[in-house]
Amino acid sequence: MRDLYDSQRAMRHMRRAAMQRGVVAILDVGSSKIACLVLRFDGPERFRESDSVGSMAGQSSFRVIGAATTRSRGVRFGEVDAMQETERAIRTAVQAAQKMANVRVDHVIACLSGARPRSYGLDGAVNVEGTVVTDSDIGRVLAACEVPDFGVDREVLHAQPVNFALDHRSGLSDPRGQIGNELTTDLHLLTVDATILQNLLFCIKRCDLELAGLASSAYVSGISSLVEDEQELGSACIDMGGGSTGISVFIRKHMIYADSVRMGGDHVTSDISMGLQVPMATAERIKTFYGGVVATGMDDREMIEIGGDTGDWHHDRRTVSRAELIGIMRPRVEEILEEVRMRLDAAGFEYLPSQQIVLTGGASQIPGLDAMASKILGQQVRLGRPLRVQGLPQAATGPAFSGAVGLCLFAAHPQDEWWDFDVPTERHPARSFKRAVKWFKDNW
């Protein structure tokens, strides 16, 4: 754990140094596309036009000066599957963004969508040294949280204090400077598969880039797609990507739960490819232009030309009704939403005050998906687009870029995490068998 603490602190220092130099790159490594944005930090006084979003997003401190996307190769389920192909795709995206920005980038902040995330809720309590809460008290109370033994094959990706209480006054977002005796905290810990994480880090290193930050794709998609009230009152963000679907739950502007379903839009395309006996590229085109999940009376009569270049005239002139296409797509979309509902039920989502659900990501653009999601999930559902960021090209403002835009906001204004505070070495959380047994008793 000490190694993790030190490496995360080193990445934070690297991010600050890159921002002071003025340029940092954002890298969204997905299953269907790899997006790279180049940000320029020029200070808050340079860009104060009305195009910004407001104080929460902090749009006034950076501007997008380069953007590029490329088809993702070598990535499955949001995880690196073929190292050389992924490296080539990342290099292509970064070089194109650098060319547009006309500047060289050495540091990147990346996000990943797979890696089997798992959430833990921890708590700790200490007595305040003196009368006023200081940074050292925050570090001690975070160190007092009992970390469960989540296994040697997993790494901590986020460790965020989501709530503080001072002498039984709960709901404090930042108790520093306040007077009290006993300080307690609730900590959200997100762990991911260590091997998958190391593969991504190694791939970025092979591209001659320095990693200045790492985030969960589900978390950053929620930052960019949920409006301020939704983050405050309790909402879920469902990021439907190509190879996986990320789930994040927010309340009081903090993420309290994250998970992922290893299915996405590529699985719908695969079903169409097998059902209609067409190549994947043709299936993707048919899904994009004619896809849907709710059939009407008109769809029986609307015929779609499948096309092809096999040389067999009858085979290449086949047609299929839109109702048949919807019949192929609907079961897979229902399966994804049912899996999401199981994850939300396990997280206790029904106990939140607002219970708003926001769908985002490239696969969320299937017509009729919001109506189907509201029936399956049984909540208020809306389609979410990422917040506007200065300098972002029009082509990168759709739901498919929620992760990339959220990563920009995460880079400019990261939330305080456990490694931002000086944690005493002797009080550093240790993974022991006793703590694992206690966690098992409390949660089983």
What descriptors fit this protein?
444 residues, alpha+beta, Dna Ligase, domain 1, 18 strands, five-stranded mixed beta sheet, single chain, 36% helix
Compute the number of helices. Answer: 13
Residue runs with pLDDT of under 50 for 5 or more positions: 44-60, 426-441
Q: By helix and strand content, what is the structural category?
A: alpha+beta
Helicity level:
25-40%
Largest sheet: 5 strands, mixed
Cross-sheet strand order for the largest sheet: 3-2-1-6-11
Distance from first to last alpha carbon: 25 Å
Cα radius of gyration in angstroms: 23 Å
Oligomeric nature of the chains: single chain
By CATH, the topology of one domain is Dna Ligase, domain 1
The CATH top-level class label of one domain? Alpha Beta
Global outline: globular
- What would CATH call the architecture of one domain? 2-Layer Sandwich
Percent strand: 25-35%
**Mean pLDDT score, rounded?**
83
DSSP E strands, number? 18
Function: Cell division protein that is involved in the assembly of the Z ring. May serve as a membrane anchor for the Z ring.
GO biological process, one term: FtsZ-dependent cytokinesis
Pfam family, one: FtsA
Family: Belongs to the heat shock protein 70 family. Belongs to the FtsA/MreB family.
Can you offer a commentary on this structure?
The protein is an alpha+beta fold and 444 residues long. It has a domain at 118-194 and 419-428: Dna Ligase, domain 1. The chain has 13 helices and 18 strands. The protein has helices spanning 2-21, 83-101, 135-143, 194-206, 217-225, 228-233, 265-276, 280-290, 313-316, 322-346, 369-377, 402-412, 433-443, and strands at residues 23-29, 33-41, 62-71, 75-76, 79-80, 107-112, 118-127, 154-166, 169-172, 182-193, 210-216, 235-240, 245-251, 254-261, 303-305, 319-321, 356-360, 380-383. The protein has a five-stranded mixed β-sheet, with helices on both faces. A five-stranded mixed β-sheet has the order 14-13-12-17-18, with helices on both faces. The protein has a four-stranded antiparallel β-sheet with strand order 7-10-8-9. β4 and β5 form a beta hairpin. The radius of gyration is 23 Å and the shape is globular. 43% of the residues are buried. Residues 24-225 form the SHS2 domain. It holds the Pfam family FtsA. Its main location: membrane.
